[in-house]
């Protein structure tokens, strides 16, 4: 692992700890780890989840336009930030469901 990647993971650890205190359900989802993970395991296993689209409060948000064979166009370059904001602004009591659909 490069020094830059390690520094990024350490920064993610700090962000995860803050999110864990305010919204434990979303923290696990956002950072792709089980709550209670050690710092050492976090560095190894941290692979944040991000989906292509989100349906929230009846409104559809997506990274771009999905075409055939998983080819997308018109991609939103700030999707990662929007995705995180959508999850963080959700009610912590809500259930998050991920559906992997292939057509």
Walk me through the structure.
- 44% of the residues lie in helices and 12% in strands.
- The chain is α+β, with helices and mostly antiparallel strands.
- The protein has two domains: 49 residues, no CATH class; 53 residues, no CATH class.
- α1 runs antiparallel to α2.
- The protein is globular and about 40 Å long.
- The model has no long low-confidence stretch (mean pLDDT 83).
List keywords for this structure.
two-stranded antiparallel ribbon, alpha+beta, 4 helices, 103 residues, 12% strand, 2 domains
Q: How much strand content do the residues show?
A: 5-15%
Number of strands: 4
**What structural class do helix, strand and pairing data support?**
alpha+beta
Low-pLDDT residue intervals, each spanning 5 or more residues: none
The major pleated sheet works out as: 2 strands, antiparallel
* Total domain units: 2
Radius of gyration: 15 Å
| Percentage of residues in helical conformation | 40-55%
Topology as a string of helices (H) and strands (E): HHHEEEEH
Tell me the overall shape.
globular
What is the mean predicted local confidence, pLDDT?
A: 83
The neighbouring-strand order within the major sheet is: 1-2
* End-to-end gap: 36 Å
Q: What is the helix tally?
A: 4
For this structure, the quaternary state is: single chain
